[in-house]
Specification:
mainly alpha, 24 helices
Length: about 500
């Protein structure tokens, strides 16, 4: 394992991959909040009102009423704080430059969503560096990073305003920094790991479980108790600060340091012990939420990880431990499927960790000839998720079914619905772009009219296409923007793959 300073060529490659991923995510985003509007409301309140209260009852849940009668998001404050710079950028464009599209705050919401693309691109950077240190094989590390970037659910979720991409960045960054800091005996890097896990806790409190695994692994790796105590202190100090912030945030909102907003939510608890097998099976094989269906390359990653127990048992234990504890936690929830999601959204933080062991297979191309085909198939699975907004695809096709059916019924699962919508609307979009047909008229939004966004259910979910249908982009401008972004991403990937 290479723990020496990173060579200039590897640093350059990492930057190129990060940039390529960001441009690709930016090119394929639609700027949709999906269903996670509460974090945006908190970000907006922080900037506009110096408050953390939402503007109203966003999800119509009394469990979100705080001690002062106002409504508060049940999520950690980490995502809202992270999103402030993006919100400010969107407001600058709307207010200072006078640009408007649809609703008065549409660009602020779109800028908020770009934060997910940035976080996911940074995940790819870390995956590349981690894979390179594990293998000392530059080309294999590049391929591993690209497989994670475009062959898993990280790509579709880089499009939306959920906190899952930021949670993934915090967990993956924390695991990498723990591994590097402990093995390289770098206290500063270990402290950075603690900060990452503290940030993860402020995004979703249960992600602190990953930090617990990292702390146990650190003690087992170090063994000598004095050094282990120093490592734990470096890990714990930033995490303790994060816990204090979380306690204050909970108390200000709900008058109880333990209450994130879920204590009084009857639908947010754990399932009965005898029913937890449903969550395990659902997250593995259900049509609506199977990890292996929505990110097939992770199945190969798990097989490769099993081999790592012979090659590097300690690293395998760290990766497997973090993945297992988060998987079992989410499988134990009553709503293990995260409800308003495309695929297993809760499992996004473990996806890159499951794929990391593939670097050893990519380094030995003759041993696993089918792996490139498996990765290509995994990339194809992501196309319906990035081409169509899952929140609009169902209503556009007239598909609306209860939660249990969306979990277990192939016909109405997210992947099936998005694929049907793509097959149905792609020919229309080609005709609209080519000027062979006229797109449906778009009426202006009225108040909080949610039907306004559903009017674009016929559109592929790309922001430059929306601007064309809005009349903000001419046909030539739209095509030029799309091709330029695609070309820039392709050029960056080609540069990253080429040595020197």
């Amino acid at each position: 394992m290479n723990l020496s300073p990173i060579p200039a060529e590897i640093r350059r490659t990492g930057r190129l991959l990060c940039f390529a991923a960001f441009v690709a995510y930016l090119a394929t985003t639609g700027g949709s909040m999906a269903t996670d509007t509460m974090s945006y409301e908190v970000t907006k309140a922080i900037v506009e009102q110096r408050s953390v209260a939402m503007s109203g009852k966003v999800l119509n849940l009394e469990a979100h009423v705080g001690v002062d009668g106002r409504y508060y998001a049940p999520y950690g404050i980490g995502h809202a704080i992270y999103s402030v710079p993006f919100y400010l950028a969107g407001r600058f464009v709307e207010v200072q430059l006078g640009v408007s599209v649809g609703r008065s705050d549409a660009l602020r919401k779109a800028a908020f969503v770009v934060g997910s693309a940035v976080a996911t691109a940074l995940v790819i950077w870390i995956v590349f560096l981690f894979a390179w240190r594990l293998s000392e094989h530059r080309s294999a590390a590049v391929t591993t990073a690209l497989a994670v970037a475009f062959g898993t659910l990280l790509w579709p979720y880089a499009k939306y305003g959920f906190n899952a991409p930021l949670a993934t960045l915090a967990v993956v960054g924390g695991v990498y920094a723990t591994w590097l800091g402990v093995r390289g005996q770098r206290p500063g890097v270990v402290a950075l790991a603690g900060a990452a896990f503290g940030g993860a806790l402020l995004v979703r409190p249960e992600l602190a479980l990953a930090g617990v695994v990292a702390a146990v692994w650190s003690a087992a790796e170090v063994r000598e108790w004095r050094r282990a105590a120093r490592v734990w202190a470096a890990l714990a100090a930033p995490a303790v600060v994060a816990i204090g912030v979380m306690f204050v945030y909970n108390y200000v909102r709900f008058g109880d340091i333990r209450d994130t907003g879920y204590l009084r939510d009857a639908g947010a608890g754990f399932s009965a012990w005898h029913a937890r097998w449903e969550g395990i099976a659902g997250l593995l094989v259900s049509p609506g939420r199977s990890l292996f269906l929505y990110s097939p390359v992770t199945l190969a990653g798990i097989v490769a990880l099993a081999g790592w127990f012979r090659r590097d048992r300690s690293t395998a234990m760290l990766l497997a431990g973090v993945c297992a504890i988060l998987f079992l936690f989410y499988a134990s929830l009553e709503y293990w499927d995260a409800d308003r999601s495309y695929g297993p959204r809760y499992l996004l933080p473990i996806v890159p960790l499951l794929c990391l062991p593939l670097v050893s297979w990519f380094a030995d191309a003759t041993a696993h000839r089918l792996l490139p085909w498996a990765v290509a198939g995994s990339v194809l699975v992501q196309i319906p998720g990035i081409a169509m907004d899952f929140t609009k695809a169902g209503p556009a096709l007239g598909v609306s079914h209860p939660l249990l059916e969306r979990r277990w019924n192939w016909r109405v699962s997210g992947l099936t619905t998005n694929t049907r919508a793509l097959a149905h609307y792609l020919p229309d979009n080609i005709r609209y772009v080519a000027g062979l047909a006229t797109p449906p008229a778009v009426r202006p939004p009225v108040g909080r009219d949610t039907g306004f966004s559903e009017q674009f259910g016929y559109s592929l979910d790309f922001w430059w296409l929306y601007l064309f249908y809005f009349g903000k982009f001419s046909r030539l401008t739209m095509i030029a923007v799309a091709l330029s972004l695609a070309g820039l991403a392709g050029w960056s990937i080609a540069r990253a793959r080429s040595p020197g």
